[in-house]
Amino acid sequence: MRKCSFFSLSEINKPCQLFKFIRSLSLFLCSIDKKRKEVEKMALRPIDNALPITPERLKKKVVSAPIQKQSEFGVNDENKAPLPPSSTIDYVSSEDLKPVSDPASEIQGLIEGLDSKDWTEVCESLNNARRFALYHSSLLLPVLEKVMSVVVKAMKNPRSALCKTSIMASSDIFNAFGDQLLDSTDAFDNLLLQLLLKASQDKKFVCEEADRALNVIVKSMTPLPLLNKLKPYVSHANPRVRAKAAICISNFVSKMGLEEMSEFGLVSLVQMAAALLNDRLPEAREAARSTVISIYEAYTGSEEHKQLEEWHSFCQSSLPPIFAQSMAKITAMLWSKEMALKPIDNALPLPQETAKLGANEESKTASLPPPPADPIIDYISSENLEPISDPESEIHGLVEELDSKDWIKVCESLNNVRRFALYHSLLLMPILEKVMLVVVKAMKNPRSALCKTSIMASSDIFKVFGDQSLDSTNNAFDSLLLQLLLKASQDKRFVCEEADRALNAMVKSMTPLSLLNKLRPYVRHSSPRVRAKAGLTISNSVSKMGLEGMNEFGLVSLVQMAADLLNDRLPEAREAARNIVTCIYEAYTRNEEQKQESWQNFCQSSLPPIHAQSMNMGTADGEEQQAMPEISGLIGRCNFLVTVDSDI
User: Fold this and answer.
1) Which of 216, 259, 483, 514 has its CA 20 to 30 A from that of 177?
2) Where is the TOG domain (predicted)?
3) Mean pLDDT score of the chain, rounded to an integer?
4) What percent of the chain has pLDDT over 70?
5) SS3 26
6) Is the Cβ–Cβ distance between 114 and 125 less than 8 Å?
7) In this structure, are 502 and 585 located in the same domain?
């Protein structure tokens, strides 16, 4: 059907509508004609600032333009010799610089070379200043402030070669003069600011050179006066400058003792570090944490400040509560690491060979051979495990081997447990609960190889014993189920995937009713990942059940459990809840004629209104998806009829 911008031809059924259509169409055509005439007038209209067209201008004239005198620089004249190419600057390291042959005579021309307008001469003069600083510092000292001002001026130059050469010159000056530079009026302050700015820019080779210069400052100068110089830059407007200043402060504080910190002001130092803990850039925050750790170690190093509580009380008295809490978190983590490294009271004594070595005898320990590397553990699948040759004799030593302190032996014993479970289950049955407790203990071990081997052992135990593993008295199965849910929720992929396989083996080998009673508490676990894994396991168990099994467990309890998961944080838990609802709905409405009505009545009588609405929406979406093929076929038939009607 043809359509215009105002009406559809199929909508015109009455004379009045036809009249409106003709009127609007005529108005539209008139407006188009009016716009066309305006465009033609605008094309013929003279421009306001255009010169009037005269007969003389219609004739073509050639006007000779006055030849301007061009500057000699950059002229491409074949009668003149070509200009020399721009010279490349070599960045000479300090080790490759050599002394000046006649320093007494060349020191007089150094300032003139630094004041030159040719940047290449300035670079050469800066390299000469580096030679004087390294080998003839006494001659350079009288003109040091003038040289520093030239170095600052060269750092501001946009030419990168000149900028980098000046930064290298500042490094050699710091190495040669050290704290003597602080006697200048404003030259050192300007130089420090320029170094922080250059270390914060995007040009990598300039930035790296400025970082090296700042590290030279830290090594060649005493910390106390430099901290006073760096303190204002902690609150600089540029976040990169704040980060570079924080790194320098951290490096200085790591060199200081408690006496020097107290001389600077321990409270001021802590406040400065606390302000940087909430900075925008991670480099500044990391430098602030390093500063806090250095202050904490110096503060608690003396005998009168041994306790952690005294450090916390000092922070609370010197800082606002939020900053004091941040400082307490950092030092608490450091304190826990120190306590973890302390020897345990009931630890076994060291052998005599180890005691003779001593703590600092590096020469003796260096001569010893390196310790052997950890062996590689092979993860054997259940299909590749073979029966034990003499199971009756080996079953007696199995528990002792599982209690071994050597994790490699424990891995081997767990593989033997898998062999007993697959081929000699009657021999393993009397000690099954003990074996399950050892499996739980191995899963808690941070060594991933031992953890994965224990998970594989649990899978084989579930396959063989099934519901018999639920009869443990010491809650062995409950502990094992919790560890599997935790391991399936962690970030180590190969451990997580193995735990998922173990949970699937549990679902396949056990009856759903008993397993649902065990999984029910984990639907409200504090960890969202554990809730999601529990929801997936419940969904797999419910898919195996019929309406009788659901009624035996409690259909209302099952629906309420699914309704709680529908509003969960993770999408995996919500998807598992929708699968549970679908399984319950299909089992509940299998013999009902009015499916949706009976399901709605059941949900409204068993759940709060919000949960009941969510359940009804989920099942309604399922019915809509089932009805989509019929609806699409009906729409296709209607489109065919409309096409035939339009052709007629």
Assistant:
1) 259
2) 96-321, 387-613
3) 76
4) 72
5) helix
6) yes
7) no
Q: Is there a single domain that holds both residue 472 and residue 550?
A: no
396 and 501 fall within a common domain: yes
Q: How many whole angstroms from its chain centre is CA 339?
A: 29
Secondary structure class of 410 (helix, strand, coil): helix
DSSP string, 76-119: --TTSPPPPPPPPPP---GGG----SSHHHHTTTHHHHHT-S-H
Please indicate, yes or no, whether residues 503 and 601 belong to a single structural domain of this protein.
Answer: no
In a domain, 498, yes or no: yes
pLDDT of residue 4: 45
Establish if 303 belongs to a structural domain: yes
- Could you write out the DSSP letters of every residue in 202-237? S-HHHHHHHHHHHHHHHHHS-HHHHHHHHGGGGG-S
Report the pLDDT averaged over residues 626-633. Answer: 43
Q: Give the domain CATH number at 189.
A: 1.25.10.10
Q: In 3-state terms, what secondary structure has residue 272?
A: helix
pLDDT in tens, 160-171: 888 999 999 999
How far is CA 538 from each of CA 18, 260, 507, 580, rounded to the nearest angstrom?
Answer: 67, 63, 9, 8
Same domain, yes or no: 482 and 536: no
CA 234 to chain centre: 26
Instruction: Give the chain's domain count.
Output: 4
SS (H, E, C) 499-547: HHHHHHHHHHHCCHHHHHHHHHHHHHCCCHHHHHHHHHHHHHHHCCCCH
Q: Which amino acid is at 378?
A: D
Nearest to 453 by CA among 395, 338, 376, 544: 376
pTM for the complete prediction?
A: 0.43
Whether residue 547 is found in the same domain as residue 475: no
Distance CA 136, CA 133 (A): 6
CA distance 418 to 411: 11
Question: What are the tokens at 280?
Answer: 């925008």
Nearest of 416, 402, 421 to residue 466 by alpha carbon: 421
Contact 435, 428 (CB under 8 A): yes
* 527-557 burial code (b ≥16 CB/10 A, e <16): eebbbbbbbbbbbbbbeebeeebbeebebee
| Strand, coil or helix: 50 | coil
Distance CA 466, CA 425 (A): 12
The CA distances from residue 237 to 280, 286, 439, 504, in Å, are 11, 19, 57, 57
**Residues, the chain:** 648
Same domain, 506 and 543: no
378 is a domain residue: no
Quick one: 494 and 549 in the same domain? no
Domain range for residue 455?
Answer: 384-510
Residue with tokens 């969904």: 539
Mean pLDDT along residues 91-109: 84
Q: How many CB atoms lie within 10 A of CB 558?
A: 23
- How many whole angstroms separate alpha carbon 408 and alpha carbon 419? 17
Angle formed at CA 348 by CA 345 and CA 351, multiple of 5 degrees: 130
- What are the phi and psi torsion angles at 8 (to 5°)? -100, 135
**466 in the Ramachandran plot: left (φ > 0), alpha (ψ -120 to 50) or beta?**
left
Which domain-ending residue is among 340, 373, 393? Answer: 340
Among 175, 200, 221, where does a domain finish?
A: 221
